Structures
1.
Amino acid sequence: MSRYVSPVVSRVLVAGLALVATAALAAGCAEGPGRAGDGIGEPVVPAPGEGTTPGGDPDAGAVDPPPVPAGTDDLRRAVRLYADALLTGRAGPAYALYTDACRDRVDRTAFGDLVARAGELYGEPLPFAAFSAVGADADEVGDRAEVDYTLRGARGLVQEDETWELTADGWRLADC
């Protein structure tokens, strides 16, 4: 039986593996430290005042990319949470940000393994270098948006035309 893994996670790992291989060759080492736990069962949304950096702002200290259209703040926040969970190896929160259809399609164990590897490669959240969303200016359940973003400090990690859907639970990744 083959396991289906999201192309989004695959792109993160391919870009990450290339970066790690280059860094390992330059530094003369082959491995970095591992991370304990897979994050499954962790809350998706941080508590008030918490974020991915001190002070609770996930992009603290970064120069913000240009503003996105009105109505995309919640979408940007969901993409930020997903990227942070993925890069820090927390499979539970990342998986929870999938649509129900994607959760039915993507094997949770294989996803968890890949997210753990991404956490080993990156280990920390990275601020957006660029972010744009098309089709996210409405607020009705069922709306879809195509999102493009890059993360500062992750050369080669470019997400293009990533499909997100507005559900009763908020924006969820539908690109699976």
2.
Amino acid sequence: MKSTELKINHGKITLGKVFFYFVIIDVLFLPYFKYFVMPNSLIFVVIWTVINIKKIKTDFDFKVFIILFYFVLLSSFVSYFFTPHTLNGYSNIWGDNIKRPFQLLSSFLYYFYLKTYLKSNSFSLKKILLLFILFADILALISILNIGLYFDIKEMFSVRDPFIDNFFITTDDYFFRYSYLWVDPNSIGYIIGVVGFYLMINEKLSSIQILFVIISMLLILITCMSSGALLAVSIVFVLLVGIYLKRLCINFSIKIKKKEIFSLLISICILLIVGLNIETMSNLKVFNYGLDRIFGNSSESRKTIYQYIITNKNMLKSLFIGNGYTLIVDNAIKRPHSDHLRIIYGYGWIAYLSIILFLFRKRKGIAFHHHFFLIPGFVAFSINSLIDEQKVFVVFLILLAATVFKKKVIRETHTRGS
């Protein structure tokens, strides 16, 4: 059977190109599959992987993935015999221990699909990512101006949202956290940081586009009210500013791109404008509520959770395999609020080291600052979750694959030119 990876010649529409657009549009804009919580395109990506396994099996990342694959499956299988199937009225423990590993492992297939596609096809994600940010902005503004309409849109897309209720729609004093078309409000906060910084660092943007991305980040961070996402975005901004200032101080002969200076100046100006007009903005309840939640949120609750789990559940027992996705401590189900703990206890240390190596290692030949867009993902992985919302994880993996391949092409081009 021939591969669906067909080259694009003179703008002709091919099966490979149609499939590629379907995958990207599905992940960014469409709701999950109606009957199972998974992307609509997942079954096609799984089929593509089976057909093209020979193309990817020699990839170092695929070898790391196989290690992760085996230990996740082994831990999930063993959990059937050593983990209670019901606990304190919750009867879906075994269901979660099957569903969540499938969700985690199948997400990685998108990485290999995009990486392989880009070897045969020329494509830039810039335009479609900018459209994604615009769409997220529009929904955020609708959620501020007409919460009922926003809920209607989510219901139209068959999105399960715990806040879709007449009480929340009719209560003026209540302001929910914006979550895009997903469930967890933190997810859109982290992913707007990942997408925004990917565009600013790894794509060529005009000054207007940079301004648009920065303003969009601020809008969505305030409406989703995620203190973790705000922390992640702030870290990256500080690092980028530090790099630009270092370049200026070390060698004035280095040409600093106009867009970089513009980005720095615009960021400073926006922060000043927000600071000077904070009283005016506070008259908008959603901004007031959002800012209060972001800056009033304490890290003590997270520390307490982490300390309790680590103290009462021995990590060394998960040296090789874990106890499955569902974390049980002292005969109670616990949410770890950290993928580090979730994977160590759920699938073991070998699986944990494999996923860290896959996602967050510095890629050879890629400048360190080109990895900065991964930082919001790492913060989510550390204090919330990057892997629980499958589309968020898939977007992260797609942008990682795009960066790896794009820099590889640039490096090979320079090598041939010399």
3.
Amino acid sequence: MTGAGQPQPRAGAPRRLIGLVALLLFLGMVILLQWRIAPLSPGRFLPQAAFTGYSTADLWAFAQGVGQDPNAVSLYTSLLGWVDPAFIVLFSLWVALTLRPRMLGIVAAVVFALLDMSENIGLLYTLMSFRWDYIFLEFKDMPVPVVSGDMTFLSLLTSAKLTLATLLVAVIAVQAIAGRKAKT
């Protein structure tokens, strides 16, 4: 119990810390992807950042470009398999704690997490099937998918994830601004 004159802990401090850590993870991934992965990909294409979607041919070109450097493959798969899931958990938690009404925040956070994790699993599976199996030998017997110019279901997940994340951040920003104006 705090006495008179003692500073009260801020109710939003944990939420802000979670948001800050999620933001730092996101920025770290962006920097690594732009610095180490994008230069190896034709047109600096990064599937998880393609708002307008992509085809299996785009993924094939990405896999061939990045696949030339085993260290880049290892970095990319580590980012998708470890760092991005940590970001997904923290971002989703921040959304659930910040977006009002609370039930909307929880539902939006769960939907975002499912979209983003499904996209990561799909990207990793697809890229492994494009014969990145010299890094991951347990995938060596996977069938090679058909490469076409058609948009993939995976690209729909990417577009939905990016659209939802953008909307969530925008709505939370508007709610924060409106909350500050209401206090003044």
